[in-house]
Specification:
The structure is a single chain. With 355 residues, the protein is an alpha/beta fold. It has helices spanning 11-23, 63-73, 84-96, 108-114, 117-124, 144-150, 173-181, 245-262, 295-300, 305-313, 347-354; strands spanning 2-6, 30-35, 51-54, 78-80, 102-103, 133-137, 154-158, 168-170, 188-193, 199-207, 210-222, 236-242, 268-276, 282-288, 324-325, 332-335, 343-346. Strands 10, 11, 12, 13, 14, 15, 16 and 17 form an eight-stranded mixed beta sheet that branches. A hairpin with a 2-residue loop joins strand 10 and strand 11. The longest helix has 18 residues, at 245-262. The chain starts with a strand and ends with a helix.
């Protein structure tokens, strides 16, 4: 089976490829990778990708002609679109014409809403599932208003983008002013009440109007956390694989509300991120319209969303279309780094090393 995976310079597409090559027993896969940066390491990882190509950016006028040629010349069966900008471009195209090959792409109305954290937060605020928040642009004159509304420490970040872009815990106005100045490429910020609890994620696979697969996890530490003032880089180095139906229920409650609001079909792969407050109540901080970098950790533990996605797109007659929440062994954690396969172990084994 020939599969196109885009954005292979990033950790998420390579994680998806590893999930197929190492942890899936569905079929043999020939993976074709693309990236806009000729220096991207994924373009040269021959153990993962049979062929790779440098392509124009998603907003370039030459993007579609380049992608379509690759798909035609290599007899691509289906595409896995992972960079956010490309998901948006494929979603936009799906509104008006057919896609050049099979791909799991959300409707434009849903994708357009979710990539803007401030829009998503505004829609969900009435169902008590997002933290109190204020959106402001970098030229906002009276920053004291933000402190007046949020009443205490808050978390500030860009309204768009991933990997904790522009994120910082803010405790005073001078810190906020300085942070705005050293992030000149961020035009609009969202400030949200600081939540001290666990950092959680719920993965949700929808297909043709149905929720088919879910799984939950906790992000504890991040790769290269010291380089980011917030300590968050978007790449989890240590996490826990969880069995938390309540988190799935809250994710579904939010997603149902958003699908109804946008009129979008329940279709696509979404990662719902939560942070808990001091009373362990989870609030949604963002919803990604794609897989995220530690998808291979789920696959290693038996929740192979990459394989599930491929089997659905391939219309595998043996795929169980009944809903399933993946469950893991109790106390199961994962450790990962940029250039290594994940390690799964029981947390009590980790604690022995620390004692």
């Amino acid at each position: 089976m020939k599969i196109l995976i885009t954005g292979v310079g990033g950790p998420t597409p390579r994680s998806f490829a590893i999930s197929l090559k190492k942890y899936s027993f569905y079929k043999r896969f020939e993976l074709i990778g693309t990236d806009i940066n000729p220096l991207s390491i994924g373009l040269y990882q021959n153990e993962l990708f049979n062929k790779t190509f440098v392509v124009p950016g998603a907003t370039s006028l030459d993007y579609w002609s380049s992608i379509e040629k690759i798909i035609k010349d290599n007899n691509i069966d289906l595409a896995i679109i992972l960079p956010e900008l490309e998901v948006m471009e494929w979603s936009k195209r799906k509104e008006t014409q057919s896609l050049p090959c099979k791909a799991l792409i959300p409707d434009w109305s849903m994708a357009d809403l979710l990539v803007d954290k401030s829009k998503m937060t505004e829609i969900l605020k009435d169902i008590d599932i997002v933290p109190p928040s204020v959106t402001f642009d970098r030229n906002h004159q009276n920053l004291k208003e933000v402190f007046d509304v949020l009443q205490g420490n808050f978390w500030v970040r860009s309204t768009s983008g991933t990997s904790g872009l522009g994120s910082l815990k803010v405790e005073d106005e001078d810190s906020l002013k300085n942070w705005i100045q050293i992030n000149p490429n961020v035009q609009t910020f969202i400030a949200s009440k600081f939540l001290p609890g666990r950092n959680l994620a719920c993965k949700m696979l929808y297909y043709n109007g149905k929720l088919l697969r879910t799984a939950t996890a906790e992000r504890v530490n991040y790769i290269m956390a010291k380089v980011a003032p917030s300590g968050i880089t978007g790449n989890t180095s240590f996490g826990r694989l969880l069995n938390e139906p309540h988190l799935v229920e809250e994710s579904k409650r939010a997603m149902d509300f958003l699908f109804k609001h946008t009129g979008a079909k329940q279709h696509g792969f979404f990662t719902v991120d939560f942070k808990e407050d001091e009373n362990s109540k989870p609030y949604i901080t963002e919803i990604n319209v794609r897989h995220v970098a530690f998808t291979q950790c789920f696959a290693a533990a038996g929740a192979n969303f990459a394989s599930d996605t491929v089997r659905l797109l391939n219309e595998d007659p043996e795929f169980d279309l009944n809903y399933k929440m993946y469950e893991f062994e109790k106390d199961l954690i994962f450790l990962r780094d940029v250039d290594s396969l994940p390690i799964l172990m029981k947390e009590k084994e980790l604690l022995k090393k620390l004692s």
